[in-house]
Amino acid sequence: MGGLFALSGVVELTSVTPVLALMLGLTVGIDYSLFITSRYRQFLAEGVTPEEAAGRAVGTAGSAVVFAGATVVIALAGLSVVGIPCLTVMGLAAAGIVAVAVLVTLTLLPAFLSYAGARVLPRGQRTGRRTGAGAEGFGHTWGRVVTRLRVPIPLAGVLGPGALTLPAQDLRLALPDAGTAAPAPRPARPTT
Fold it and tell me: pTM to 2 decimals?
Protein backbone atom coordinates (compact mmCIF):
# COMPACT_ATOMS: atom_id res chain seq x y z
CA MET A 1 0.00 0.00 0.00
CA GLY A 2 2.93 2.32 0.68
CA GLY A 3 4.23 1.75 -2.83
CA LEU A 4 0.79 2.35 -4.27
CA PHE A 5 0.41 5.63 -2.41
CA ALA A 6 3.93 6.62 -3.47
CA LEU A 7 2.83 6.21 -7.08
CA SER A 8 -0.17 8.46 -6.51
CA GLY A 9 2.05 11.47 -7.21
CA VAL A 10 2.61 10.19 -10.74
CA VAL A 11 -0.58 8.24 -11.46
CA GLU A 12 -4.07 9.49 -10.68
CA LEU A 13 -5.84 7.09 -8.31
CA THR A 14 -9.54 7.04 -7.64
CA SER A 15 -10.68 6.67 -4.05
CA VAL A 16 -11.76 3.08 -4.77
CA THR A 17 -8.41 1.88 -6.14
CA PRO A 18 -6.48 1.49 -2.84
CA VAL A 19 -9.46 -0.15 -1.15
CA LEU A 20 -9.92 -2.66 -3.98
CA ALA A 21 -6.21 -3.42 -4.13
CA LEU A 22 -6.03 -3.89 -0.37
CA MET A 23 -9.05 -6.20 -0.31
CA LEU A 24 -7.69 -8.38 -3.10
CA GLY A 25 -4.20 -8.42 -1.57
CA LEU A 26 -5.54 -9.45 1.82
CA THR A 27 -7.76 -12.08 0.27
CA VAL A 28 -5.06 -13.86 -1.69
CA GLY A 29 -2.49 -13.33 1.06
CA ILE A 30 -4.69 -15.02 3.65
CA ASP A 31 -5.72 -17.79 1.25
CA TYR A 32 -2.20 -18.65 0.16
CA SER A 33 -0.82 -18.36 3.70
CA LEU A 34 -3.43 -20.75 5.02
CA PHE A 35 -2.62 -23.19 2.23
CA ILE A 36 1.07 -23.27 3.12
CA THR A 37 0.36 -23.25 6.88
CA SER A 38 -1.95 -26.23 6.47
CA ARG A 39 0.77 -28.16 4.67
CA TYR A 40 3.27 -27.10 7.36
CA ARG A 41 1.00 -28.41 10.11
CA GLN A 42 0.59 -31.68 8.24
CA PHE A 43 4.35 -32.17 8.08
CA LEU A 44 4.76 -31.25 11.77
CA ALA A 45 2.10 -33.82 12.70
CA GLU A 46 4.13 -36.42 10.80
CA GLY A 47 7.11 -35.67 13.06
CA VAL A 48 9.26 -33.51 10.77
CA THR A 49 11.37 -30.75 12.35
CA PRO A 50 9.95 -27.21 12.04
CA GLU A 51 12.67 -26.03 9.64
CA GLU A 52 12.24 -29.08 7.42
CA ALA A 53 8.45 -28.78 7.59
CA ALA A 54 8.61 -25.14 6.47
CA GLY A 55 10.85 -26.04 3.54
CA ARG A 56 8.67 -28.96 2.52
CA ALA A 57 5.49 -26.87 2.84
CA VAL A 58 6.86 -24.24 0.47
CA GLY A 59 8.33 -26.91 -1.79
CA THR A 60 5.03 -28.72 -2.18
CA ALA A 61 2.36 -26.02 -1.83
CA GLY A 62 4.52 -23.16 -3.12
CA SER A 63 4.17 -24.12 -6.77
CA ALA A 64 0.37 -24.00 -6.45
CA VAL A 65 0.64 -20.59 -4.76
CA VAL A 66 2.86 -19.27 -7.58
CA PHE A 67 0.52 -20.62 -10.25
CA ALA A 68 -2.63 -19.26 -8.59
CA GLY A 69 -0.97 -15.91 -7.88
CA ALA A 70 0.28 -15.58 -11.45
CA THR A 71 -3.21 -16.35 -12.73
CA VAL A 72 -4.73 -13.63 -10.54
CA VAL A 73 -2.04 -11.11 -11.54
CA ILE A 74 -2.58 -11.82 -15.25
CA ALA A 75 -6.36 -11.54 -14.87
CA LEU A 76 -6.11 -8.23 -13.03
CA ALA A 77 -3.56 -6.84 -15.48
CA GLY A 78 -5.95 -7.88 -18.23
CA LEU A 79 -8.27 -5.09 -17.15
CA SER A 80 -5.93 -2.74 -19.01
CA VAL A 81 -7.06 -4.29 -22.31
CA VAL A 82 -10.44 -2.58 -21.98
CA GLY A 83 -8.84 0.81 -22.47
CA ILE A 84 -10.63 2.59 -19.62
CA PRO A 85 -7.95 4.43 -17.62
CA CYS A 86 -9.76 4.03 -14.28
CA LEU A 87 -10.03 0.24 -14.71
CA THR A 88 -6.45 0.01 -15.92
CA VAL A 89 -5.12 1.72 -12.79
CA MET A 90 -7.35 -0.40 -10.53
CA GLY A 91 -6.29 -3.63 -12.19
CA LEU A 92 -2.57 -2.86 -12.22
CA ALA A 93 -2.62 -1.63 -8.62
CA ALA A 94 -4.39 -4.78 -7.44
CA ALA A 95 -2.06 -6.95 -9.54
CA GLY A 96 0.97 -5.33 -7.90
CA ILE A 97 -0.36 -5.92 -4.40
CA VAL A 98 -1.26 -9.53 -5.22
CA ALA A 99 2.27 -10.09 -6.52
CA VAL A 100 3.67 -8.72 -3.25
CA ALA A 101 1.31 -10.97 -1.26
CA VAL A 102 2.58 -14.02 -3.17
CA LEU A 103 6.21 -13.02 -2.52
CA VAL A 104 5.54 -12.52 1.19
CA THR A 105 3.76 -15.88 1.37
CA LEU A 106 6.72 -17.65 -0.23
CA THR A 107 9.48 -15.91 1.74
CA LEU A 108 8.39 -14.37 5.04
CA LEU A 109 5.72 -16.91 6.02
CA PRO A 110 8.06 -19.95 6.03
CA ALA A 111 10.50 -18.03 8.21
CA PHE A 112 7.75 -17.22 10.70
CA LEU A 113 6.47 -20.79 10.63
CA SER A 114 9.86 -22.33 11.35
CA TYR A 115 10.35 -19.79 14.14
CA ALA A 116 6.92 -20.61 15.63
CA GLY A 117 7.67 -24.33 15.52
CA ALA A 118 4.96 -26.55 16.97
CA ARG A 119 3.03 -23.59 18.42
CA VAL A 120 0.96 -23.53 15.22
CA LEU A 121 -0.50 -26.92 16.14
CA PRO A 122 -3.54 -27.25 18.42
CA ARG A 123 -2.66 -27.86 22.09
CA GLY A 124 -3.89 -31.43 21.93
CA GLN A 125 -1.52 -32.27 19.09
CA ARG A 126 1.42 -30.53 20.80
CA THR A 127 1.05 -32.67 23.91
CA GLY A 128 0.45 -35.87 21.96
CA ARG A 129 -3.22 -36.38 22.84
CA ARG A 130 -6.07 -35.89 20.40
CA THR A 131 -9.01 -33.60 21.10
CA GLY A 132 -12.16 -32.90 19.18
CA ALA A 133 -14.00 -35.35 16.96
CA GLY A 134 -12.01 -38.48 17.79
CA ALA A 135 -8.76 -39.74 16.37
CA GLU A 136 -9.85 -39.24 12.78
CA GLY A 137 -10.46 -35.52 12.97
CA PHE A 138 -13.34 -33.38 11.81
CA GLY A 139 -12.78 -33.96 8.08
CA HIS A 140 -13.10 -37.72 8.43
CA THR A 141 -16.22 -37.40 10.57
CA TRP A 142 -17.80 -34.94 8.13
CA GLY A 143 -17.01 -37.28 5.24
CA ARG A 144 -18.81 -40.14 6.99
CA VAL A 145 -21.88 -37.94 7.63
CA VAL A 146 -22.02 -36.81 4.00
CA THR A 147 -21.67 -40.37 2.71
CA ARG A 148 -24.34 -41.65 5.04
CA LEU A 149 -26.76 -38.89 4.00
CA ARG A 150 -25.95 -39.02 0.30
CA VAL A 151 -29.41 -37.95 -0.88
CA PRO A 152 -30.45 -35.19 1.59
CA ILE A 153 -27.11 -33.35 1.53
CA PRO A 154 -26.99 -32.80 -2.28
CA LEU A 155 -30.68 -31.86 -2.24
CA ALA A 156 -30.02 -29.28 0.47
CA GLY A 157 -27.01 -28.08 -1.54
CA VAL A 158 -29.23 -27.43 -4.58
CA LEU A 159 -32.52 -26.38 -2.99
CA GLY A 160 -30.97 -24.10 -0.32
CA PRO A 161 -29.17 -21.76 -2.73
CA GLY A 162 -32.11 -22.06 -5.12
CA ALA A 163 -34.44 -20.72 -2.41
CA LEU A 164 -32.00 -17.88 -1.77
CA THR A 165 -32.26 -16.82 -5.42
CA LEU A 166 -36.06 -16.37 -5.36
CA PRO A 167 -35.88 -12.64 -4.54
CA ALA A 168 -33.85 -12.16 -7.73
CA GLN A 169 -37.00 -12.68 -9.81
CA ASP A 170 -37.95 -9.05 -9.21
CA LEU A 171 -34.45 -7.75 -9.86
CA ARG A 172 -34.20 -5.17 -12.64
CA LEU A 173 -30.91 -5.33 -14.47
CA ALA A 174 -30.36 -2.14 -16.41
CA LEU A 175 -28.40 1.04 -16.22
CA PRO A 176 -30.28 4.07 -14.94
CA ASP A 177 -31.60 6.42 -17.59
CA ALA A 178 -33.76 9.53 -17.67
CA GLY A 179 -36.81 7.45 -16.71
CA THR A 180 -35.38 6.82 -13.26
CA ALA A 181 -34.61 10.48 -12.59
CA ALA A 182 -36.71 12.53 -10.22
CA PRO A 183 -39.40 14.55 -11.97
CA ALA A 184 -38.48 18.13 -12.72
CA PRO A 185 -40.06 20.70 -10.42
CA ARG A 186 -42.99 22.59 -11.90
CA PRO A 187 -42.36 26.24 -12.62
CA ALA A 188 -43.93 28.59 -10.14
CA ARG A 189 -47.12 30.26 -11.30
CA PRO A 190 -46.86 33.98 -11.63
CA THR A 191 -48.94 35.79 -9.07
CA THR A 192 -50.77 38.88 -10.12
Answer: 0.66
